[in-house]
Amino acid sequence: MTIKILDGEYWWFGNVILGHKMPFSKDTEICGSMTKGNGTDQYTPTAISTKGRYIHADAEFDYEIKNGEITFSDRGAQSIKLYEGFGDLRGAYLAAMKAHFPFCGKTPDLLFLQKPQYNTWIELNVNQTQDEILAYARSIIDSGLPAGVLMIDNGWQENFGTFEFNARKIPDPKYMMDELHKMGFKVMLWVTPIVASANKRFMELWKKGYLITEKNGDPCIRHWWDGFSAVLDFSNPDAEKWYCDQLDSLIERYGVDGFKLDAGDYSFYKDEDVTYGNATAREQTKLFNLIGEKYAFNEFRAAWNCGGRAIVARLQDKVHSWDNCGLNMLIPHTITQGLAGYAYCCPDMLGGGGESSIGRGKNLDSELFIRWAQATSLMGMMQISYGFWRYFDKDTVKIILDAVKLHESVCDYCTELAKKASVTGEPIVRCLEYQFPGQGYETCTDMYMLGDRYLSAPILGKGMTERTVRLPEGCKWKNDKGEIFEGGTVVNEIVPIERLVYYERIQ
Predict the structure, then answer these.
(1) From the CB of residue 140, how many other CB atoms can be counted at a distance below 10 Å?
(2) pTM value > 0.70
(3) How far is Cα 219 from Cα 212, in angstroms, rounded to an integer?
(4) Contact, 64 vs 71, CB < 8 A?
(5) Which of 73, 207, 288, 378 is most buried, by CB atoms within 10 Å?
(6) Inter-residue contact 344 to 426 (CB < 8 Å)
(7) 190-205 tens-digit pLDDT
(8) Exposure class string for 309-346: b at 16+ Cβ within 10 A, else e
């Protein structure tokens, strides 16, 4: 199937990892895929146009944009349809959402939007010991940050597929949980669909048919970032029940509040795998997503065709960089998440979760860290892993804490947006073209809207201390300094390091 791109038409496709290359236009040349690649972000088999058109398929598909045309191939191409007549980008999104990924009426726990989230990964790596976890939590409070969701990352468990605390590292998990709760934290544990072959349960799970297998019946052993392991087959309802029983047991015995459900990437599966329900690789990811949705405290990085579901979708780890898969990608990727139906989206950890690019706590760029915090402060969710209060001077720490306070100041509005999204499907973070169609914002990816009230215009380049903002027409705006501007005004703002330029819509 081939579709001609109209003059002045721009498209967003539902693969978030390419969000920085969007929107696509007649001048674009690119090959994209919903079927291949490592699937490290969220995907939805839908594309949305600024001309009120959208494309949807019932399965995965590949696409190529060249010479002003979009050509589709692979399985989904058999079911791809073009729908027209919905006016603009917002109209096309709402029509696609209502028809293909309607919102379920539920949200993840609203604490995700009301307080910062914290993750132990960068500080502790796999050294997730009881003493270190408690020390990290106490340092958060001592630094002046509020308690929120605390995610204990990889390293707490005995082995992959064994849902029990490593007694050598965490000798009294109930005590640890109680102490974290006393500090005001809700606690999530890192879990995956992975089962290590050295796991004491491996043979049992294989014999029960709970693992994905090869055609000869041997368990599939997949290469992932922590070695070679087997993978649970969630198309088997008994395997799903076993997995949920393990998670529920952690909640009942220790008071765990929820789970960071990591992995589940496309690369963990193959379409030719032998599974109980003949699930494709992408479908296995969705089955994992649906398991996590049962818990109000959940987080996913990889997701497939789960727009409208009550899951927290965090962006793929970014590099600690201005323009190399770093800060430059936060806004366009977050915008794309919303247009793919993932309203409850979380930008990556402050400073970038790809810690291997710089080493833990070493060679951090304080200017970049500040601008990163400012850029995410109005994105609905904010996640912290680096103990920045330990790495920077007091002036830098104060500026970062000010960004956190700004995030907290809009938490009631974010909560309101999340509740509305669960019913209306409207994204929490929106591109300006979505909110103000026909005003020339089609390719604007360095600003964003929080709902319909706040316009954020962060600094995204090293050494920049000023920027120009063209305010949308049809309303008045008040900036962070209290100055009032008519819509349509072009404002030249001076932006010292301690300032985030943002505007509140007042009429």
Answers:
(1) 22
(2) yes
(3) 6
(4) yes
(5) 288
(6) no
(7) 999 999 998 889 999 9
(8) bbbbbbbbbbbbbbeebbbbbbbbbbbbbbbbbbbbbb
**Contacts with 142 (C-beta within 8 Å, 6 or more apart), sequence order:** none
Do 331 and 448 touch, CB atoms closer than 8 A?
yes
pLDDT for 38 equals 60
pLDDT exceeds cutoff 50 at 58 = yes
Are the C-beta atoms of 449 and 432 separated by less than 8 Å? yes
Query: 73-90, pLDDT tens digit by residue?
Result: 987 778 999 999 999 999
Residue 205 vs residues 3, 263, 279, 291, 305: alpha-carbon distances, Å: 47, 19, 18, 18, 28
| Strand 117-119 relative to strand 149-152, pairing | parallel
Most trustworthy range by pLDDT among 71-85, 345-359, 445-459: 445-459
Rounded to an integer, what distance in angstroms lies between the CA atom of residue 42 and that of residue 88? 24
ω into residue 23 within 30 of 0, thus cis? yes
DSSP 61-89: -EEEEETTEEEEESGGGGT-EEE----SH
DSSP 409-438: HTHHHHHHHHHHHHHH---SEE-HHHHSTT
Closest listed residue to residue 455, CA positions, set 469, 465, 438: 469
- Mind spelling out the 3-state secondary structure of 171-194? CCHHHHHHHHHHCCCEEEEEECCE
Q: What is the distance between the alpha carbons of residues 108 and 380, in angstroms, rounded to a whole number? A: 13
Distance CA 318, CA 202 (A): 33
Structure tokens at 284: 């296995």
